[in-house]
Amino acid sequence: MIERYALSPIKDIWGLKQQYERWLEVELAVIEAFEDFNQAPKGTSEKIRKKASIDVEKILEIEKVVDHDVIAFIKGVTDEMGDEARYFHKGLTSSDIVDTSWALAMKRAGEMIIREYEKFIDVLKKKALMYKNTITVGRTHGIHAEPTSFGLKLLSFLAESERNMERLKKSIYQVSQGKLSGAVGNYANISPEVEKVALEKLGLRATKVSTQIVPRDIHAEFLNALSFLGSGLERLATEIRHLQKTEVLEVQEPFKKGQRGSSAMPHKKNPIICERITGMARMLRSYTITGYENIVLWHERDISHSSAERVFIPDACMTAYYITNKAIYLIKNLVVNEDRMLETFERSYNLVYSQRVLLGLIEKGMSRENAYKLVQKNALYAWENRKDFKQVIKEESEINTKMNSDEINELFSNNYFLRNIEEIYKRFDF
Questions:
Q1: CATH of 351-411, one of 3.40.50.720, 1.10.3470.10, 1.10.40.30, 3.40.50.150
Q2: What CA–CA distance (Å, rounded) separates 102 from 93?
């Protein structure tokens, strides 16, 4: 991830020094477990903890010779140790350390994303409540459909966000699996009991069956959950982008004092946050493809997955965190133009009430087919001639025989469309 989109604290997980620190954390947990089972002298882990020194440059220099990052790490960390060094990495293979470390990193990053996403949900919930009874035009196929509540629009995104939160929590639970089972996963040189205790010390649990690695479908599920999160934020961002169009302008992104929208056109206020969320959500979805491809490896393992996930796992976590952080700012400071929402009805000449007229005629005894044809004829006339649909209806003699002016006015009332909004809101915890 480039620095522009890498935010603390989540970016601080992914440095090379932090990686080595996690590897050491795993090694120490194993040695502590050895002590618990009297397979290493008491105090061995404490001696190693005191003597272990992570010198990134030194490890990288060793790696230039051995061409193996874990061997370079082991050699670099244990160089200054005494007899206790023989318990370091005992019975383990590189992937025991690397994959268990991945679990620690993804769990910790996932928990950071959860905390940020909780803030987003809270902000979205407040906005949905604030605009519960704010009337706006609903759209299907991009065309005016029927009146609805702007709060209800936001409530749709809230419901999706809650589902995405549950998906993410489940995936973090799933990804919190390590393995300390040796070169082909058969515990030839380390016991399942040591694995269990060591992983518990790390806040992890053992993969039910491993090969030399933790199966990558577990990681793919985590990536998939991040992709869902991104797609949900993108759907919200896309809605705002449409509503910020000049000819609509029902909502606007926040625009800071001193901010500039275009190097050429001083009048511009562009939905740059929404567009950034859209682009980065695409990145999140792209990571899932490689995540799925990493599931299929040769026999007990190959390393075709390794180079790819060193890129996309950190990037996916930082991307998800970044766009969640930006979505919080976006929704918290969203400009909602309620007056423009009301003006929008006039742009389609109040045609959004056509179904109310249709149902009104049916209730008066007209067949659905005849009522539909009659309403459609008058609706198309209003649109083509830029006339107010309500006035056109009042001037239609065939409709006048069925209902009077007051009854027609009632069909054009917005209150009708909001009468069940409260019931939907009761489904949420406000």
A1: 1.10.40.30
A2: 15
